[in-house]
Amino acid sequence: MESNKQSDWVARSLSSVWHPCTQMQHHENLPLIPVSHGRGAWLYDQNGRRYLDAISSWWVNLFGHANPRINAALKDQLDKLEHAMLAGFTHEPVIELSEQLSARTDHVLGHCFYASDGASAVEIALKMSFHAWRNAGLTDKQEFVCLKGSYHGETIGALAVTDVALFRDAYGPLLRQAHVVASPDARAAQEGETAPDVARRAAQDLALLLEQRASHIAAVIIEPLVQCATGMAMHDPEYLRLVRALCDRHQVHVIFDEIAVGCGRSGTFFACEQAAVWPDFLCLSKGISGGYLPLSLVMTREAVFQAFYSTDVTRGFLHSHSYTGNPLACRAALATLAIFDEDDVVNRNRDRAARLTAALAPLATHPKVRHFRQRGMIWAFDAVVEDVSAAATFSRRFFAAALEQELLLRPIGRTVYLMPPYILDDAEIDGLAARTQTVFEQVIGALK
Questions:
Q1: 10 Å Cβ neighbour count for 321?
Q2: Which of 67, 217, 239, 299 has its CA 20 to 30 A from that of 127?
Q3: Residues 331, 74: contact at Cβ < 8 Å?
């Protein structure tokens, strides 16, 4: 009975739902899992089979599925206010969330502008930077700078500062060209170089560009510490310090896209804390609502806010989303922040990270693994696959094999990564490491 129901769900979904980031034809052979419910770190299908959500459902679910504290907050909010427009109105959840986030930056970033998803937050930051310069009379500052291999979303503006060919190339004719500078990816270290050396070399590439084009450049956008969608490219915090100094010198804004790397994922609540610098704009989404509801925001400085503050409507930031600052989403975010504080999550994650890193040691030294790396609650390694056709199918093979081991893992190309929720117990950590190794051995063995 359950098996028939599961098959029915799959058939109905394939005939009516266009799934994201998917070549739909692949589902003729690749499993589509109909999720019935979730509990803690686990997702369950219609047959009752479970899967450890080792990528936090695309990096959003920080404290497990059906978390009782977030559930309770949402149920309470649902009886008070589900939504009200934020133009001309306000409400307690959005005020409290803005105040709490500002306090976490020591009030350096004191103003929050809300949207619904990460790409929209990036669009807001880009537009806000350009418009702030225009309001200041610097109308030539219309260009943006991104890193090689960067990913910032798939709307037109966000794609313009994205340098991943798979996402960008098809829409190239629609996009405004951004400057692309060297990535500080530590994997690019030459013989004898350290990660800080790579960071300094990459920063020099940006310095040369700014010397030539600073009067035309509005902002530089960076994913601090980890460029996620390009294959978990990790870099030293020194790069962020150098970029901040260069942009200050050349009067250019800094945008930190912390959509994936913020909210504790990189080892501190904000990734940029590890460099002891703050940007002009900081984008948050994904984990901020604990994986419950769409929510994104851009935090910015008082000076930027004042650039728009005027009796002249045309100097205002006239950007809006229907669900801007949705009370339910903000309440989920407040419950998420409360868990961070009540459970001392950032510090406790250090113990979790140490245990999982130790458990993954056999993979770190595997002859078919290169560049095993870890930053906070992110782990990644690159599989050695010489055959071009095998490399092209590695991710799908790994995903399917992982499901057989009760794991949800979705490699990026030949990069296997883990971004689990912050609630794993010791048994789950050890099981995740052991099963990841089993899957890797199975897939690599089949590709020989």
A1: 17
A2: 239
A3: yes
- Write out the residue range of the structural domain in which residue 439 sits: 2-66+344-447
User: DSSP string covering 78-104, please?
Assistant: HTT-S---SSS---HHHHHHHHHHHHH
Q: Which two tokens stand for residue 216?
A: 């035309």
Angle at the Cα of 199 from the Cα atoms of 194 and 205, rounded to 5 degrees? 130
| CB 51 within 8 Å of CB 43 | yes
The SS3 assignment for 299 reads strand
Are 285 and 324 in the same domain?
Answer: yes
Contact 278, 105 (CB under 8 A): yes
CA distance 175 to 324: 26
Residues 105 and 87 in one domain: yes
User: Reading across the β-sheet that carries 217-222, which strands appear in turn?
Assistant: 111-115, 296-300, 281-284, 253-257, 217-222, 143-147, 179-181
Whole-angstrom Cα distance, residue 255 to residue 300?
9
The total domain count for the chain is 2
Those residues whose C-beta lies under 8 Å from the C-beta of residue 285, and which sit 6 or more positions away, are 117, 118, 121, 259, 295, 296, 297
Q: Is the pLDDT of residue 104 over 90?
A: yes
Whether residue 380 is found in the same domain as residue 352: yes
Q: Are residues 93 and 151 in the same domain?
A: yes
1 band by pLDDT with thresholds 50, 70 and 90:
very low
> ∠ at Cα 218 (213, 221), nearest 5°?
100
Give dist(CA 242, CA 80) in Å, integer.
47
Question: What predicted TM-score, i.e. pTM, was given to this entire model?
Answer: 0.96
CB 269 within 8 A of CB 347: no
Pairwise pLDDT comparison (1 vs 346), residue with the higher score: 346
What percent of the chain has pLDDT above 70?
Answer: 99
Q: Which two tokens stand for residue 304?
A: 């930027």
Label the pairing between strands 253-257 and 217-222: parallel
**What's the burial of 168, exposed, middle or buried (CB within 10 Å: 0-12/13-18/19+)?**
middle
What are the structure tokens assigned to 353, written together?
């990270």
What are the backbone angles phi and psi of residue 142, rounded to the nearest 5°?
A: -125, 5
